[in-house]
Amino acid sequence: MAKLLFVQNLDFEFLGPMYISSFAAARGHICRAAVVDGIESLAAEMESFKPDALGFSIMTGSHEWARRLALGAKKKYGVVSLFGGAHPTFYPEFLKEDGVDFIVRGEGEAAVSEILGRISDGKPFYDVANLGYKKTGEVVLNPVRALDGDLDDYPFPDRHLYDILEGRTDRAVRTVLTGRGCPYSCSFCFEVSMRELYRGKGKYVRARRAEKVVEECLELKKNNRARMIYFADDIFGADKKWLYDFLELYKSRVGLEFVCLVRADVVSSDDDYARRLAAAGCRNVFFGVETGSEDLRNRVLDKRVTDGQIKKAALTLHEAGIKFRAYNIVGLPDETLDDAFKTLRLNIEIKTDYPWCSIFAPYPGTRLADYAKKKGYLPEDFDYSRLAGSFFVGSPMTTPRIREIQNLQKFFQTAVLCPASIPVIKLLIKLPPNIFFRLWFGLVYFYYYVKSERRQIVKTFVFALRNFRRAIS
């Protein structure tokens, strides 16, 4: 038996560690999670649990915090660290940094379980598939293992891993995946790189059986006091035959309200789509607008969605009684300030219920980051450690009027909620970025977050206060 301690600095339930924990438990290993601020607050867990390794599931932006903590833990306790998630998968050069012992690329359940088995048996694990490590200062990347074609063989995520969050966040909204992989190729997303990583290793887009997903939802309803399900698939129901069969089964056996992520072109292509979602208990959906410039959306972002499809999807959802969050990005390569305001106006036109807007972050492994370098908006040797911990803070891009665009992002939701405020906002964005803009954004963002995900306001407010300082740092 080996013990793995997942370490993070947010009060949030991540599906990746939960899947790894249940997979490892089925093989006799033990995982635990800890939310810490720094090396000092890790001491109690190290003393009580005595882990054989630390695990970090990280995106670009949280990687520097995780690396520093891993380095401190190695110096103080001599424990090795495993890094998984998008950042080490698509930026394996991360291994060159102090404190980074090993990375696990791609889907990590089988790889981490095999590593824990080797640790338990006292054997080396350098040859484990998906593993990356340093050898005489050079990065070594093992090939990834074949994808498991039957996701129904996986045990349900270990929800007890995050019992430490009980009373600290709203756990009545539970996240579920009905499948893995996305068939689309948006340039701002890492899906293209992930498909390339697994080329020849099996079917990439996979769905679970509807009956198995319903079984998991019933367990969450019965044993975890779930009052709502959040289906977090990249695209929920792209396979409409699977979706419509599932919705009938879900409605009759589970009956909980749910929220999900969709695509505007998928919604607009079938007048029955939104109605069926609503009839099964869907109250809110989330989809990407990205930008109000159709040229940027399709030429630069490779989204392949027209303004007409977005407008029709919005109308169809409104008619079905489903409210929606629209994802938007400002500060994109080739974007002008006028383009950013065009994005704002499109959200007003389609009557977005819950507008959401980030600042473009050039993540490694995405074609859009490469495009930004090619166009000179970023240096070729761009240091990804320069990225802020949140894509709500600022931009590393050197595009025209980027300061005003960054400021506009802080007032984006306000403008959609109250279009009459736009003339004032046009004046405010000319000012230097400041803490007051960030505080205002935080308040409005909190309002929209609670409403769109139907969270409990008190628990969510406490959660937001604990994590706000990280978001603005």
Helix and strand topology:
Blueprint: E1 3-8, H1 15-25, E2 30-35, H2 39-49, E3 53-57, H3 63-77, E4 80-84, H4 86-90, E5 102-104, H5 109-121, E6 131-135, E7 138-141, E8 173-176, E9 179-180, H6 191-197, E10 206-207, H7 210-223, E11 228-231, H8 240-253, E12 257-261, H9 264-268, H10 271-280, E13 282-290, H11 294-300, H12 307-320, E14 323-330, H13 337-349, E15 354-359, H14 367-374, H15 402-417, H16 422-428, H17 435-453, H18 457-471
Parallel strand pairs: 1-2, 1-3, 3-4, 4-5, 8-11, 11-12, 12-13, 13-14, 14-15
Antiparallel strand pairs: 5-6, 6-7, 9-10
Helix pairs in contact: 1-5, 7-8, 8-10, 10-12, 13-15, 15-16, 15-17
Any low-confidence stretches, pLDDT <50, length ≥5? none
Number of strands: 15
Largest sheet: 7 strands, mixed
Q: What would you call the structural class? A: alpha/beta
> What best-fitting shape do the alpha-carbon axes yield?
globular
Distance between the termini: 39 Å
Just name the CATH architecture of the largest domain.
Answer: Alpha-Beta Horseshoe
Radius of gyration over all CA atoms, rounded: 22 Å
Helical residue percent band: 40-55%
Counted up, domains total 2
